[in-house]
Amino acid sequence: MASTSKMDSLGEGESVEEELERFDDFTLASSWERFISDIEAVCRQWIADGSKNLLEKGAVSLAFSKRLYKVKMDVKYLSKSYCVEYYFETNNNDKVSDWNCSLHDLQLSFGIKEFLVIAPQSASGVVLDAPEATKLLSAVAIALSNCSSLWPAFVHVHDPSREAYIGIQNMGTVFTRRFESDCIGSQVPIKLMHLEGLYELFVSKFACSTLDLALQLCKVHFTMKATYKTLPYDDDDIQGIDAKNKEPEGSLGDSNNRSQWDDDCPWSEWYSAEDPVKGFELIATWSEKVVESSLEMAEMENDSPHEAEKWMILPKFSPNLDSSERNRIRFASQLRLLVNALNMSFEAQFMEDFVSVENPGSDNLRSSMVVPSPSVLDRVLKDLFHEGVQLPDIGKSGHKNSRAIKGAPLESLFAQFCLHSLWISNCNIRAIAVLWIEFVREVRWCWEESQPLPKMPANGSIDLSTCLINQKLHMLAICIEQKRELNEDFQDCIGSNDDTSSPVLNDGLVGDNLAEMHVAGKEFYDKRDSPLTVGAKHASASVVSKFEMKPELAVAADIKPSNIFRRGTAGPVGSMMLLKSYQNLHAPFTQEAPLMTEDMHEERLEAIEALGDSFDFSAQLERDILSSDMSAFKAANPDAVFEDFIRWHSPGDWEDDGIGQTGPSKRFVMQGSKDNWPPRGRLSRRMSEQGNLWRKIWNDAPPLPASEQKPLLDPNREGEKVLHYLETLRPHQLLEQMVCTAFRAAADTLSLTHFGGLKQMTTKLEQLYVTLASTLRPFQSNRISGDGETIEDLKRLCNVFEHVEKLLSLAASLHRKFLQVPRLCEAVFTDYYSFYLPRMGTGSADETVQKDFDMKQQVMNNERHVVSSMFTPPTASQSWRKVLSMGNLLNGHEPIVREIIFSVRDSVSNNHYAAHHDSRGLQQEIETYRMYIRGTSNDLRVALSVTSCD
User: Fold this and answer.
1) Which neighbouring-strand residues pair with 623?
2) How many helices (H) and strands (E) does the chain have?
3) Up-side HSE of residue 295: CA atoms within 13 Å toward CB?
C-alpha cells in the first residue's frame, strides 16, 4: 500500500503512473526474493534491448564464432557475488545446426541457441556445492518465468575439468526441459567405446521395462561426426631441421643426410625451413538416419568414412608460422643482421680497420663478434670462384620487377657474395670485412693470372641499373678477356714465320673476300669482326650501312677499276661517291666505343658542366674514338678527304646545294653515272671554322684499319682502376650496396618458388618488389649518412620481408600437398591469407585479430581420394602404443574424436499443453530425449536433455 503522507502530497495533475513509481513494495522481505528480483531486472533489461541494442552497448563477440555474442551483469546474494551471462546470436531465425563448427559447447551439447549461465565470481567459476547449484538454478528459473522468457539457464558444477553443467528451460504451459552433462576422464567402460553400447545407454534413459535393450525396437534418430588426424612428424625430423638451422655455415655443407620437405625449394641452398603445415584434420559427418536396434549400430561401426555425407578438412599449422618470435633462421633474420652491420660500418674508414689490432674499437669488436674460420673461408671462396666457372644466364635470373632495385643480378658474382655473407658467422661486420678482403684477393689473382672472372660476362655492355660493384666486376671481366686476347695475339706474332706483307691484288680489283682476309689478317676477321661495328653513326636518309644490304652485294657494289688499296672495309655505302676521285665511299669496320661504369659517366658529366658543352670540348672528350673512326675511314677510303668523312660520319654537318640529290633513291638510280659526281655541297659553319678540332684530328690520324689500331679500351689501365676501387672501398659504401643486392637476391631466390600460381601470393610478391624499390631508392646515390631513420626503415622492410617469406613457405607446402587438387590448395591458402592479413599491418583498423586458425574447407567427392592418401597407414614404430578402441577406421586410423547425437521425438499435435513456440501454429513434434556424446580413446563426455510435463 502507499503511505498517507505521499497520498496527500499528490497534486491533481499528477498521473497514476507517477503514483505507481512511488509505490513501496514491502513483499520483497527476504534476501532470496531480492536476489530473484535482481536477476529478473537484468533479464527484463536484456529482453527490452534486443540483440541490436545490446551490440551497440558493447556486447562481446566470442573468438570462435562471428555470430555469437555475450553480455554479463553482476548480482549479489548475501555475501556472495555472482555473474549472470547472456549468450545470443544476431540472427535468431536460423535453425540450430548439429555440427556447426562455430557453436558454443552448450549449444552443441543440448541443441539450443540463446541461453543464460550463472556462476560464482571465484577462481574456478563453478559451484562445488550441490544445494547451492540447485538454489541458483531455481532462482534463475523463477526470474525467467516472471519475465515470460523461454531462455534455458545453466550452472557450471563439480570440478572445472569435468565441464559438467546442470540446466533448466521453461518451454511453455506445462513442459519443462532439464539438462545435465558430465565427463568420464579415465577408465571408460569398453562397452561405451562402441556405438552399440552408446545406443543402449541412450535407450536406457527412457525404456519402460528391464528387458534386454538389444531386443527392443525404438526409433532413434542418429547422426555422427568423426575427426581424423594425420600422423605427426617424427621427433628426429624436427631435431634434424633445428640442428641444420642452428649451424652458422649451413649453406655450405649439409651434415644432415635426412631428406627435408624443402630440398628442391630455391631457398634450400641457404637454409632449411620448418614445414609450416604440420598435418591435417579430416572431419567426416554422417547424415541423420533412424535406427531401430542395437544391431544396426554394431553394423554402422564398420562403416568407412568414405560413406559419410560430408568431408571437411582443417589444416594444422606450425605455431611458429604465426609467432611473433624471430628465432627462426630465414632470409629475413639474416637481413636484419646485415642491417645492423651497415649501422656499424660508419665507424671505420677502411674494411681492414674492422680486423686490424690497431683499431681503437677492435677490442669491443673482437669480444662481441666472431670471424669465420679459415676452413669456412676456403669453402666460401671455393664456391664463389672455383665451382661456378660456367656463366649462368644472368639476363633471365630473378623476378621481372627486380631491375627496379639497384643491386646485382641473382647469379652474378657479387650477388652470390652477398648471399654467402648473410650466413657466415651471424653476418657481423668483422666477418664481412674478413670475407671481403679475401674476396678482393681472389679477384686480383684472377686479374694477374688472366683467368676468367667466374659468374660474370666477359662481353656485352655494362648495365648501369645495377650497383657500382657489379659494374666494376663486369668491367674487370671484359678487361681480363681483352688482356687474354692481346696476350694470345702477341704469342701468335712471336711464333709465326709467315710473311705478313700485303699481297698485290691482280688488276687492282677491290672487294674480293679472300684478299681482304689476307690484307687485314685472318685473325682479325675471325676474332675482331664480331665486336666491331660499322661506323655508320648518325644515320640519315642518304647513308646506307652494310646491314641494309645483302652481304653478297656489298662486295660486288664497287666493280670499277682502281689503283687504290682498301683495308678494313665493310662495303660501299649506297651510291655515295668520294669528292676527289670517281670511287664509291666505303664504310669501315670501327672499334666499339669504350665501356664506362656509372662513376665514369658521372665524372664526364661533371667535366662537361664545369667546362661547358662546346663543340670542341665534346670532340676533345671523344678524341680517341674520333681518331679511331677517322683512321679506319682513311684505310677503307685511301682517296678520301675530310669532307668525305663528315658526309659519312656526321651528315648533319654537310649542307647540299639546292640541286643536290637528297634521297638515297636518286643516288641508286644514277649509280655509275658521272652526272652526279663530284657531289655538290659544303661543310656546315662549325665544321668550316678555322682551327676546327675535327680537322686537326683528321690531319693527325694515320690510315689504319680497326684491327691494327690500339684498342680504345686499355684493359691494363682500366683493370687496375677497378682493383683500386675494390681495395679502397669505404665500409659504408660496400655495406650499402650489399644491403640492396642482398634484399634483391633474397627476393629473387624466393620468387623462383613453385606455389601453383596462387593469386594472393603472386600479388604479394609484386608488392614486395615495389616496397623494396621504394625503401632502397636512397641507396642508389651511395651517399646515405647512416642516420637512425634510414636504419629503422630497413628494419621495417625486414618485417615486411619476413611476412612474405612465411606466406611463401606456406604456399609452397600447400602446393606440394594438394598438387592434384589445386582448388583445395587455393581455398586453404585464401583462408589463411585472410586470417594472417591483420598481423601484417594491412588489415582494417577495427578488424579483430583471431587468435587461432580454425577455418575448414569442404572436400568435394572427386577430391576425397587425394585427401585420403594423406592418411598413410601407421608403421609399427608409430602405432605400437596405440590400441584401436573405436571403429569407423580410415586407412588404419581410428578417429581422434567421435561425436554422436541420439534423439527421440514425440508428436504433440492438437495437444493443448503444447508450447506456443511458433506463431504460425502449434508445434507438431517435440524432442523429448536428446543425448550428445563426445568420445576419444581416453575419455567420454555425455550431455542429456529431457523434456517432461511435470
Assistant:
1) none
2) 31, 19
3) 5
pLDDT single digits (tens) 684-736: 888 888 888 888 999 999 999 998 888 888 899 999 999 999 999 999 999 99
Whether the upstream peptide bond of residue 678 has omega within 30° of 0, thus cis, is yes
Q: Which three cell numbers stand for residue 428?
A: 657481423
Strands (E), 832-896: 857-859
541, 663 Cβ separation under 8 angstroms: yes
Q: What is the DSSP letter of 267?
A: G
The residues, any chain, with a CB within 8 Å of residue 519's CB and separated by 6 or more, are: 502, 503, 565, 567
Measuring CA to CA, which residue among 845, 820, 818 is closest to residue 832?
818
Cell (9 digits) for 823: 582448388
Cα 25 to Cα 704: distance, rounded to the nearest angstrom: 125
User: Which helix (H) or strand (E) is 903 found in, with range?
Assistant: strand 897-907
| Tally of CB atoms within 10 A around 549 | 15
What's the pLDDT tens digit per position in 453-482? 999 999 888 999 999 999 999 999 999 998
User: In which residue are the cell numbers 574424436 written?
Assistant: 897
Where in 459-596 does DSSP place strands (E)? 533-534, 569-577, 584-590
Residue 440 contacts residue 727 (beta carbons within 8 Å): yes
Q: What are phi and psi of 88, to 5 degrees?
A: -145, 160
> In this structure, which long-range contacts are made by residues 579-582, counting pairs with CB atoms below 8 Å and at least 24 apart in sequence?
579/641, 579/643, 579/644, 579/678, 579/679, 580/639, 580/640, 580/641, 580/644, 580/678, 581/639, 582/674, 582/677
Q: What single DSSP character describes residue 527? A: I
Are residues 179 and 165 in contact, defined by beta-carbon separation less than 8 angstroms? yes
CA 152 to chain centre: 49
The C-alpha cell that represents 763 in the structure block: 600479388
Q: Which amino acid is at 601?
A: H
What's the average model confidence in pLDDT over 110-122?
Answer: 91
User: CA-CA-CA-CA torsion for 11, 14, 15, 21, nearest 10 degrees?
Assistant: -90
Radius of gyration of the chain (CA): 45
Nearest to 264 by CA among 723, 812, 883: 812
Please answer whether residues 585 and 641 qualify as being in contact, where contact means their C-beta atoms are separated by less than 8 angstroms. no
Q: What are 510's three cell numbers?
A: 677491290
What is d(CA 180, CA 943) in angstroms, rounded to the nearest whole number? Answer: 6
**Three-state secondary-structure class, residue 126:** coil
Q: For residue 116, what are the β-bridge partners?
A: 86, 153
Q: Are 435 and 507 in contact (CB under 8 A)?
A: no
User: Residues 587, 607: contact at Cβ < 8 Å?
Assistant: no
pTM score: 0.77
Amino acid at 16: V
Distance CA 533, CA 553 (A): 18
Q: How far apart are the C-alpha atoms of 186 and 939, rounded to whole Å?
A: 6
Q: What percent of the chain has pLDDT over 90?
A: 45
- DSSP-derived pairing of the beta strands 115-120 and 153-157: parallel
Nearest of 800, 870, 802, 813 to residue 265 by alpha carbon: 813
